């Protein structure tokens, strides 16, 4: 199993952050997701 390097950790964190922002606020306003 490959070890996580800093780049992998960053992209995983960044993807999670984008998903959180989209679901929590921005996405609701832009796409009207209930």
TrEMBL record:
<feature type="domain" description="Methionyl/Leucyl tRNA synthetase">
    <location>
        <begin position="5"/>
        <end position="28"/>
    </location>
</feature>
<keyword id="KW-0436">Ligase</keyword>
<dbReference type="GO" id="GO:0004812">
    <property type="term" value="F:aminoacyl-tRNA ligase activity"/>
</dbReference>
<dbReference type="InterPro" id="IPR015413">
    <property type="entry name" value="Methionyl/Leucyl_tRNA_Synth"/>
</dbReference>
<keyword id="KW-0030">Aminoacyl-tRNA synthetase</keyword>
<protein>
    <recommendedName>
        <fullName>Methionyl/Leucyl tRNA synthetase domain-containing protein</fullName>
    </recommendedName>
</protein>
<dbReference type="GO" id="GO:0006418">
    <property type="term" value="P:tRNA aminoacylation for protein translation"/>
</dbReference>
<dbReference type="Pfam" id="PF09334">
    <property type="entry name" value="tRNA-synt_1g"/>
</dbReference>
<dbReference type="GO" id="GO:0005524">
    <property type="term" value="F:ATP binding"/>
</dbReference>
<keyword id="KW-0547">Nucleotide-binding</keyword>
<dbReference type="InterPro" id="IPR014729">
    <property type="entry name" value="Rossmann-like_a/b/a_fold"/>
</dbReference>
<keyword id="KW-0648">Protein biosynthesis</keyword>
<keyword id="KW-0067">ATP-binding</keyword>
């Amino acid at each position: 199993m490959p070890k996580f390097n800093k780049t992998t950790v960053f992209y995983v964190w960044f993807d999670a952050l984008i998903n959180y922002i989209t679901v929590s606020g921005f996405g609701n306003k832009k796409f009207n997701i209930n």
